[in-house]
Amino acid sequence: MAELKLGNITKQISNNLFVNANTRAIDPCYWYMELFDRIPVYQFYMEVHRSDADEKIDIYNVIFNDLISSGEFEPMLYEYNKSKKKEKESSMAFLNDDEDSTVWDDKDIYTSRFYLVSKNEPLMIYYEYDNLNIITHLGTEAIDNVVEKYIKKYNQDNDKVKCYAIVKDPDMYLNDFDIELDGDLDYDMYNEGFEEVHKRIVHSIEKDKNGLYLLYGKPGTGKSTYIRHLIKECGTEDRKFIYVPCKLFDALTDPTSLNFLMRNRGNVFIIEDCENLVTVDDDIRSDGITDLLNMTDGLLSDALNIKIICTFNTDYEKIDEALLRPGRCRCKYDFDLLDKDRANKVAEKFKIQKVDKDISLAELFNPEETFMEEKKKRIGFNVK
What we know:
Layout: H1 3-7, H2 28-36, E1 42-46, H3 59-69, E2 73-81, E3 86-94, E4 110-118, E5 124-128, E6 131-136, H4 140-151, E7 160-168, E8 172-180, H5 194-207, E9 211-216, H6 223-234, E10 241-243, H7 249-252, H8 258-263, E11 268-271, H9 275-278, H10 287-296, H11 299-304, E12 307-312, E13 329-334, H12 340-350, H13 361-365, H14 367-378
Parallel strand pairs: 7-10, 9-12, 9-13, 10-11, 11-12
Antiparallel strand pairs: 1-6, 2-3, 2-4, 4-5, 5-6, 7-8
């Protein structure tokens, strides 16, 4: 959660939005049934980190304030008498704008809990056990809409993305790790038309059951950086992005690893720098290519429901044509050198040296290293 985002909002927040909430005395499902006469069989919950800028500000207050300000949710207040250790008339009521719900009689100590109720459909949002909860009886789509519109932006740190790697010791298992990420995806870092390519990839990863994605181009053109942003946008608990070392791919496709693959149905596998895996040598198809074909299209792919992202530096014309078949290859994209005009636009934005030619991102941001590499090439006996 970005500190600036919190800093712009905290002045609008009542610090008593949650007053000593006693979760054991509150049953959200009960109040949902009282309001809508239905059982909320669908639930979403998410832990949200507090602000590093000010630990006294509860991030849940920030989210609730955003939801109320949207005009699509109405707050309700639950109260019970803590000093008498019994509920006070089981009060649950919508709040009026002029009602001060945080002033209590000193002799009768009350605890309170806010619920947010959607004005458009039966859906309730509340806080419990360090989690933000959404309940409804309508189905997961109603929850997904609220999460996508209001909650998703709070779900991850802006500078870290969770990824997974396959470990074999001796059996296969997943080990998670964080990837550093600075800011959102900047389309200026790529050539014209990349935004539409990105939208197609995201749509395919979220909607298609399986498929192959081929990302190719010279080193330093932004392939790995793009994958980090893709993980941030599309990665979920049910859709993990799993890094596969190219040398481990053979072990992954071994019949003894089928149980591991079945346990990871619906996930996205990333294989970087896999030229040797996808290219054809003297028109002879390797076992690795055959395995890729089976995993991304066919009976095995129907069982696994996995997607595979392959990155490589060679020209895609050198790879096996069977990998490019529509229906199997969901997307292929050439991360070409950034054209001069685009590169200078980036240079101006980041106040770095402008260029007079098409250039890779790595060379654009590290001109000194590029100069040293060229200088090294000229050292020695240059016999012509």
